Amino acid sequence: MTARRSTWIPGLLAGLLALATPSLAQSSPTSWTLQHVAPTRGAAGDLVAIAVDAPGATRAVVDFGGAPALCTLHGSGSERVVLAIVPRGASSGRLRLSVDGSRRTVGWFTVTGTAPSQAFSGAARILSMRPLLGRPGDPVTLELEAPPGPVRVDFGGVPAVATAAGQGARVVVTATVPWGAQTGEVAVEVSGARLNAGLFQVLGSPLPPAPNPTPGPNPGPGPLPPAPNPTPGPNPGPGPLPPAPNPNPGPGPLPPAPNPTPGTVNVLSLSPAAGNVGDTVTLVLEVPGGGPVEVDFDGVPAATQVYGLNGRLGVVAVVPPGASSGVVYVTAGGVRVPAAPFTVW
Predict the structure, then answer these.
(1) Fewer beta carbons within 10 Å, N or C terminal of the chain?
(2) Nearest to residue 202, comparing CAs of 122, 302, 135?
């Protein structure tokens, strides 16, 4: 009896294993390709963006040298961005990303300085908003410094679905552009304060008209009619004299002045909004026609690297020595436009 049992039990186990093998083969991890990581150094609490090409991705997990990080997955189609916050206790080491079970190293991350104060003090403020334009249903990411508590977001007064995640005083809010929203200001309510995050352009919605700087309370009845000739006289004369010839005609009419703001450069995002000299800052631009792109921190030029990103331009700029807190500017196609405020620690 014992010998017969030892004969058919292994066969039964082999059959069960054969039945399970096809189902295991069908569940393969998502295939994805790394596009870019920025920044590659920072302190605990800093935000790191990892751009990947991952069609159908639903979940992402990030760790810094083995320390798990709070992260969120954004985007649609194949273009996805993972936003991760450097965790407390992380040390310099490999930055690893797992997308739907497919895990790999995406680079080396250097942890610098000390973690920012985890106890919030002072007034709530908005550090960044990106992107600056989109369609209803698109995600928008806002980075705040605020105390713990509920966060509400509206686009021109239209409430949006928003989720907040954070560590200490740093809060990352993901809001969905609501249906019915028009181009206008994005407002964030946190801890009883209402903060203005800036202008957001809803694609398909016109920009609001610029206000009349001097409308005046009474514009007046308009131009006066010409006064009649009180004394025409019997002989009105031969009429007006012909214009005298110009003794010095000059080179002719001036050529038309170029349009200083053709509207061809759109800054969609800048991240992060603060950092040290030597840190990298990533900007996403729309520059029809391409061409060279220059970045400066309030006049101090920065070293840059430009890459393509689905019809847009991604620019990685290094915070230059001598830079101070102020505004980051982008020059493309001969046009210099402000991108966003930046704080140099």
Answers:
(1) N
(2) 135
Q: What is the dihedral sign for C-alpha 266, 46, 81, 317?
A: positive
In sequence order, which residues have a C-beta less than 8 Å from that of residue 290 and are 6 or more positions away?
313
Amino acid letter, residue 19: L
Q: Which residues of the chain have pLDDT under 70?
A: 1-29, 113-122, 166-168, 205-264, 289-290, 308-311
DSSP label at residue 178: P
Going by C-alpha positions, the residue among 40, 58, 226, 330 that lies closest to residue 49 is: 40
Question: Of 325, 326, 328, whose CA–CA distance to 339 is shortest?
Answer: 328
Q: Tell me if residue 212 falls in helix, strand or coil.
A: coil
H or E element that contains 301 = strand 300-302
- Read off the tokens for 181: 């929203």
Residues 284, 131 contacting (CB under 8 angstroms):
yes
Tell me how crowded residue 189 is: count the other CB atoms within 10 A of its CB. 15
Provide φ and ψ at 259, rounded to 5°: -75, 115
Can you read off the two tokens belonging to residue 150? 């509920």
For the entire predicted model, the pTM comes to 0.35
Please tell me whether the peptide bond between 131 and the residue prior to it is cis, using omega within 30 degrees of 0: yes
Closest to 52 measured CA to CA, from 4, 120, 103: 103
Cα distance from N-terminal residue to C-terminal residue, the chain: 80
Instruction: Compute the chain's Rg from CA coordinates.
Output: 31
Q: Which of 162, 168, 73 is nearest to 114 (CA)?
A: 168
CB atoms within 10 A of CB 11: 9
Asked if the bond preceding 159 is cis, omega within 30° of 0, the reply is no
Chain centroid to Cα 4, Å, comes to: 70
**C-alpha–C-alpha distance, residues 204 and 232, integer Å:** 61
Helix (H) or strand (E) holding 327: strand 326-332
